[in-house]
Structures are given as C-alpha cells and as structure tokens.
Amino acid sequence: ANNQPCWLYQLSKAGKLCVPAMNVNDSVTKQKFDNLYCCRESILDGLKRTTDVMFGGKQVVVCGYGEVGKGCCSALKALGAIVCVTEIDPICALQACMDGFKVVKLNEVVRQMDMVITCTGNKNVVTREHLDRMKNGCIVCNMGHSNTEIDVASLRTPELTWERVRSQVDHVIWPDGKRVILLAEGRLLNLSCSTVPSFVLSITATTQALALIELYNAPEGRYKQDVYLLPKKMDEYVASLHLPNFDAHLTELSDEQAKYMGLNKNGPFKPNYYRYDRCSKTTHHDFDYVQYTHFYCNVV
Fold first, then answer.
1. CB-based contacts of 285: which residues, under 8 Å, 6+ apart?
2. What are 44-71's pLDDT values in tens digits?
3. Angle at the Cα of 185 (from 165 to 75), degrees rounded to 5?
4. Which residues pair with 85 in a beta bridge?
5. What is the DSSP string of 247-269?
6. At 228, is the secondary structure helix, strand, or coil?
7. Which end of the chain, N or C, is surrounded by fewer C-beta atoms within 10 Å?
C-alpha cells in the first residue's frame, strides 16, 4: 500500500537515481508481516482506541485489496462486520470474491456504509463527492499511503464545521447537521492511532538493516544505479531469525530430497516466481522485477 518503490523505479528509468537502492517495501518479510499481519491487528486497535465502535453488523467498505486491504478485511470480517471491497486490479478483485467479499464501486455503496477505509496507496480515493453522500456517523480513515487517499483539503471550507472530539478524532459537520467522523485527519490510522507490535518492527528493521549491509559490503559493480529487491536468501534469513519466538523447528531436506527438488539444502527454498500464499509481486527481483515495474508504472 505504499507507492514509494514505484517512485524509485520511475527515477531509475528517467536516469535520475544517483545511487543503488534496495526496495525493502516489496520484500516478502515486509509485505507479508508488516503489511498483512500487522495491519490485520492495527486496524481494529486504531478504530477501537478512537471510536469504541462495535464491529458486529457494521457495513464497511475497504478500498484496495492488496496486502494491507487483505489484513483489514480479514480482521473486520472475523468480528462480524459486513465487508465489501473496491479494486482496480482484476486479479486482486477475483481474490476478494474468492475470499467472500463483494467487489463494488465506492460511489454505488457509499450512502449505506458505516465505515470507509482506504488501503490503496493512491490519491483522492475518497473525494468530496463521496464525503457529501456519506450517512450521518460514517467513520472515515486511511490505512494506505501518507495523507493523500482522502481529500481532506476539500473539507476545509466555510460551510463545514470541524469539531475536535478527542485526540485524532474530528467530527466534520455539514449544514444539515450530518457528521462524518474523520480519524487522524486522513493520515495513517495504524501509525497515528494504534501501536505497532515490536515483533513486527523487528522483522522490518532486520530486513532494512540487511539491505544496508548488503549495499555497503557489495563489491564494486554488483549494483548499478538501479532498484533491487533483497535477495531471497536474505528474506529467508530474516524469517529464520524470528522463528525461535514461536519455538518453531524447521524440517531439513535430505540430500536426495534436495536433489529431487533442485534446491540447495540451506536455501533459498523457493524459485523467484513463487508467490507466497496470495498474489504478490514480492518474489520477482533484480532486473526482471525492474522491467516488470517499469511497465506497470507506465501503464498505471
């Protein structure tokens, strides 16, 4: 749910990237654990801390079904919310359908929603037109990128009144008395209104540290002024460092099994195209991944 890597690839394509860069955000250990598992918990934590809302029976639309959106939808559904999803990507949309979520357009359902949650990494996902059509008491928040997803600037007009209810919670009041509950002024809910578990921070920080060590220790010429993903072997190493917290014991391949699978007994254990559970771009790396992302950014 973060568009910074795409921005890096755009700089690289334009020849404006001055140094080699590691795209940590799209590494497996960042996407799966920070974006999916952490957001699955922090969405509930942030909403409870700010609104004390009861989730059972609430109509919720989650904009975006990437890793963050998947985590949010999973958590909300588990507590009895009626969740639907908006998507631009047909593959993610099909995943949402197969996971039991109705895929809709925001402008078709916004009047009925009790909560609107953005997780796209894009801008102006929720516009003033959407906000005008929301019902009284609708909760609006962002789990995606920066403060660009909700058009908060459009709400700072003379006809609307802002009332600060508590820290990070504003009621935006329309002339007819309707109130929309805006959390963290459209900034990231999980960073503004909830805590991030130290375990997840450890995974992400370890990934970042290894990326820096790799760039620093790499022999001259290994990395050009381009964008790279962390080698899969390092992703696996980050995961292995955190397994003792769960008293987890890995099974070891026999020589015969490793030969049959064409693997090194010590890893990496998956080919570059392996997608780890759900559709993800995280396992394509180096030049193949750069070419794919250049194409993707240009198309989008």
1. 228, 229, 230, 231, 232, 272
2. 999 999 999 999 999 999 999 999 999 9
3. 90
4. 62, 103
5. T--PPPPPHHHHHHHT--TTS--
6. strand
7. C
